[in-house]
Amino acid sequence: MTQTPRNIRLRKISAPWLLGFVTVTLVLTACGSGGGDSASSKKSSSPLADMLGYGGSQAEQRAQAEKQQGIAQEKIAACMRAEGFKYVSFSNLNFSSFSFGPPEGGEVAYKRKNGYGMADNMETSFAPQATQAKDPNEAIRAALSKSERAAYEKVLYGFDTSGPPPGDPANFQPVGCQSKAFGGDELQAAFKPLETKFADLQRRTTSDPRSVKILSAWTGCMKKAGYALKDQQSVYEYLSPEQTKIFSPQAGTGDTIVVAGADGGSALAPQIDKAKVAAFRKVELKLANADADCMSQDKVNELRDISREYERAFVDENRALLEKVKALNNP
Fold it and tell me: In angstroms, rounded to a whole number, what is the distance separating the alpha carbons of residues 157 and 143?
């Protein structure tokens, strides 16, 4: 996993270019890809996660994320130098309970305590600057004139962050040194042929008669609890509108969030309203606890075993494509 630096965070809802990444996330989280906290764990319960380099214990996943961030930051610095700008590589990765998913066998307990990790992740990702590592590049940017800063940010991010991204924000494609360092167009191109394959993997897994039986019972139980959800993905669809209400524009923070919405999308500087996060957490926990009541740990384990069967076949069928993605995303 990778995380963009503090000075700009790109988030997108319903963004076409994120389809592959979102699908991978959904597949891995649905399978319970977290390998627990044991430092000796070398494999997760997800063959697909292992294949893409996301497997292992939470400690191993954290080490891999930090390694990726370090390499990417050096690439950003080199790219900026080539364009005549100074950039100091640094890391301010912040990990929440959401970062690596719950440990295998502890998914239901995690839901009861943390929900789906969404409120935790927002608080961590958009924590106040004072609680995070100071970005040495802020001073570099501050010393530039307005026009120089615009040029600097265009090279770094692909657009001047004092305004929204160019073109259609709903189909915004991140470019610039930052995007290139994290795989950029090449990684997106590698994911492209996998998009429909990931969707098909999810369809095959959930269409298995064993899965259908478990998920049908879950849907019926959730309906009785007051939630008309057609499948487990609907959990995130239900919470997404509530999540977007938390962010509001704040000029001059240096952070940007790209949100696709009814107006076609806009570039916003995120300002976390703690009261709104707290309100969202209550909604999230209420839904998650109903979910936990309707899906026992034994049933979660059974679904994970079913998913593992299909993932093994998927990896065998698509090994070359997955190897290419892994190489680009795991320098």
Answer: 18
- Using DSSP, state whether 257 is helix, strand or coil: strand
Are the beta carbons of 157 and 4 closer than 8 angstroms? Answer: no
Q: What mean pLDDT comes out for the span 271-282?
A: 83
DSSP track, 34-62? B--S-TT----S-HHHHHHT--S-HHHHH
**Residue 52 in tokens:** 């893409």
Is 275 in contact with 162 (CB distance < 8 Å)?
A: no
Sign of CA dihedral 27, 178, 134, 254: negative
**How many whole angstroms separate alpha carbon 330 and alpha carbon 126?**
25
Residue pair 288/97 in contact (Cβ under 8 Å)? The answer is no
Burial per residue of 308-317, b for 16 or more beta-carbon CB atoms within 10 angstroms, e otherwise:
bebbeebbee
Is residue 264 scored above 90 in pLDDT? no
Calpha distance 97→87 (Å, rounded) = 31
Question: Alpha-carbon distance 7 to 63, whole Å?
Answer: 22
DSSP 268: E
Question: Which residue is listed with tokens 């009541």?
Answer: 293
pLDDT mean across residues, the chain: 74
